[in-house]
Amino acid sequence: MPVWLREYSWRQTGAAVYLSLPLRGVRVTPANIFCTDQYLKVSVPPFLFEAILYAPIDDTNSTAKIGNGIIFFTLHKKEVAMWDSLTLVNADKEKLQYLRENAVLKAHEKAKDETEAKKVTKQEHKKYALEATMKLEEAERKRIEDLKEKEWQKVTKELELWKKQQKDAEKQKGVQKEGELYQEKEQSEEKKKEKMNKTGIPYEGTSKTRLKPTKGCGSYSMFSENLKEEQLPAPRSAATIKINFTSRVFPTALRESRIAEEEEWLHKQAEARRTISADLSELEDLKEEERNPDWLKDKGNKMFATGNYLAAVNAYNLAVRLNNKLPLLYLNRAACHLKLRNLHKAIEDSSKALELLTPPVPDNENARVKAHVRRGTAFCQLELYTEGLQDYEAALKIDPKNETIEKDAEKIRHLIQGTTQDS
């Protein structure tokens, strides 16, 4: 039963009521106070104070100060008047019950309105932030486009200037060449004239045979005629060139040679290169590092660590397309499928990883244990407990000291026994 607080003091003015409520020996928080326009309640177990106020108050502006074991209320009246008492007197139980329920209902409605108002305000702030972000992005995009346009115009001007310089240089070379040809022709004519003078035969064809430059093209008619008379050489005949490659020489002795293994490795490398070349049309948009299966595997591992399992699966898928002989790719993708509840795919990837982890050697023990555990987990989640137990027992054979796998295997055995007894 609560202990009702009857000891309190109060005073009033025309506009406010000042109430002092002693609560010593207990810790009071704002959550212990409930106030509406005509109902005041303080509940601090085991103490309880309740008051149906004489007249309505402004509960929004009213305050309560907690300190030194006393709660001091300042209750502002809605209407300026002097009260005959702090609480209603001579009120029947039905009216008091109605006032209590009405106060609680108003409090709920007020809380609901405040929540809706906060929600609307939050949405408005979010909308404003989104609009501001979009404006900033649009301004940044426009700035980048302007920079691109200015750079393009600058490069275009430089290119046009370069082309003009090249044209001027070619034109200058053409003029110089024409001048040299003209000088050579003049010299040859002078030599012929001198020879004719020495022999005593007059040189009559000087005016007729002298070549005059044509307008625009800067070449002579006789020179162009000589070019026409020249015959072009016949095209080369087709032939086949045979290339012989030097055979590889292995430095190891024949008794220690691993030629077969090295040839197999070379064959696998060539096959991987052919696979990449076959898909080059689909992968041409990728960066250089994105065509590296090891880089993609590390990228998938980081995505898995952050919980982005779909992105990790996509990274492993691309890595498998580039190199489908790496067992760790299938093993890691099986872990992603387990997280995504793709149980059949997890079983397929774990089985493929076990196929590639051959022969069983100490270096791949940890990977084989993980493959068996992940496939066994997928079987158990599909309620195929017998198959799951077989994988767990295979993992225990590889790592018999693993207590976690031993506990999980024991749980599966109990499940199988329980299923057998139920049937």
From TrEMBL:
Q: Which InterPro entries match?
A: CS_dom, CS_DYX1C1, Dynein_assembly_factor_4, HSP20-like_chaperone, TPR-like_helical_dom_sf, TPR_rpt
Q: State a GO cellular component annotated for this protein.
A: neuron projection
SMART domains listed in its UniProt record? TPR
Give GO BP annotations, semicolon-separated.
Answer: determination of left/right symmetry; epithelial cilium movement involved in extracellular fluid movement; heart development; inner dynein arm assembly; nervous system development; outer dynein arm assembly
User: One GO molecular function term?
Assistant: nuclear estrogen receptor binding
Q: Can you give the residue ranges of the CS domain?
A: 3-87
> Sorted alphabetically, which PROSITE patterns does this protein's record hold?
CS, TPR
Primary localization: other
UniProt-annotated location(s) = Cell projection, Neuron projection; Dynein axonemal particle; Nucleus
The name this protein goes by in its record: Dynein axonemal assembly factor 4
Q: Coiled coil located at which positions? A: 122-150
**Could you tell me which CDD domains the record lists for this protein?**
p23_DYX1C1_like
TPR repeats sit at 369-402
